[in-house]
Amino acid sequence: MMDRLYALYMREAKRIFRSVYMWIVLISQPVMWLIFFGSSFSGVPKQVLISFFHTDNYIAFILPGELATSTLFVGMFSSMSLIQDKRFGYLKRVLITPTPKYDVFLAKVLGGMTRGLIQAPILLAVSVVLGVRMNLTPLSIGVLFLSLAFVGIGFSSLYSIFTLTTADWQAPGVISNLINLPLMFSSTALFPKAFFPSWLKLISDVNPLTYAAELNRGMLLYNDPSWNYLLYLAVFALVMLSLGSVLTNKFLYAE
């Protein structure tokens, strides 16, 4: 069973490394967000930044949030890959073998997670070049990648769940527009929760991106992480993965 899952996952991984356009997206999108959006507060007095963001560098503040948000955005590719396999008949060839349906789902999810993790060292390197000072230790790096893996698994599962019953090319884009921006702006990835109205704070309190941003902000900037946040992300990933596996067995069919 594991050899089938491994083969399906390696197919997803090879798609990443063989596509020039995938690398352009993986590198350019988060780096541009970090540079252009992060620089938008460069003229703000440091006293104001320290007072509201608890750091004198806004890029340092948004870095943990951008790492999590980038993982969210590339999760869309897991559902795009699933639809592509339906449209070109590959899924039909897989499902006539003894391969369990949930192996197909797991491979897509792990592929989406891998795309997200690839961006992390790129963003960390760019941040260092931009002058961000971070607490980079084996523990902090390990926690960072583990939390991003949970975020990637959770949201890649969610995207794939939405596209189990369709082969419409437009579905991932529509779902992305409906999910990504509301999740990003209702989290503390870009701004502190203190800036939010009360109704937005309620959404932020259950948004996994908030937990990922706050966990890694505490780890990388303040050396004071909230370990309960990591547990929350683990539960989120497990719930989405379990729900997706069950729904895949029930609803996934080749076109």
> How far is it from the N-terminal to the C-terminal residue, by CA?
24 Å
Query: Class by helix and strand content?
Result: mainly alpha
Give the integer mean of the pLDDT values.
88
Given the structure, what is the number of helices? 12
Helix content: over 70%
Question: How many distinct domains?
Answer: 1
Shape from CA axes?
elongated
Rg, nearest Å: 19 Å
What is the beta-strand fraction? under 5%
Largest sheet: none
Show unreliable segments: none
Element order: H for helix, E for strand: HHHHHHHHHHHH
> Can you count the beta strands?
0
Task: Tell me what you see in this structure.
- The model has no long low-confidence stretch (mean pLDDT 88).
- The protein is elongated and about 65 Å long.
- The chain is an all-alpha fold and 255 residues long.
- Helix content is 76%, strand content 0%.
- Helix 4 packs across helix 11, helix 5 packs across helix 7 and helix 11 (208-222) runs antiparallel to helix 12 (227-251).
- It has one domain (2-251).
